[in-house]
Amino acid sequence: MNEAGQGKRRVDGREQITLWLPAELVETLREFCRDKRVGPELVVERALVEYFREGDMSH
């Protein structure tokens, strides 16, 4: 894989990716982040961790 196709790895071990989400979900995420004063990156990261931790990948 060429370097242009790879995510950018930061010092903290995280990698930058791009997600395509439905507009309604993006608006919900923005509102949630504004209300809770948290960054969208953290919300998405924690949601994905929980999703994969559940073990049932049928959904």
How are the elements arranged and paired?
Layout lengths: L7 E2 L5 E2 L6 H14 L3 H14 L6
Antiparallel strand pairs: 1-2
Description:
With 59 residues, the chain is mainly alpha-helical. The chain has a domain at 21-59. 47% of the residues lie in helices and 7% in strands. It is built from two helices and two strands. The protein has a two-stranded antiparallel ribbon. β1 and β2 form a beta hairpin.
Order of helices and strands: EEHH
Largest sheet: 2 strands, antiparallel
Rounded to the nearest angstrom, the distance between the terminal CA atoms is: 30 Å
Helical run tally? 2
Radius of gyration: 14 Å
Q: Structural class of the helices, strands and pairings?
A: mainly alpha
Residue-averaged pLDDT, rounded? 84
Quaternary organization:
single chain
What is the percentage of strand-forming residues? 5-15%
**How many strands appear in the DSSP assignment?**
2
Name the strands of the widest sheet in spatial order: 1-2
Ranges where pLDDT stays below 50 over 5 or more residues in a row are none
The gist of it:
The chain contains 2 helices and 2 strands. It has 59 residues and is mainly α.
What brief labels describe this structure?
mainly alpha; 7% strand; 2 strands; 59 residues
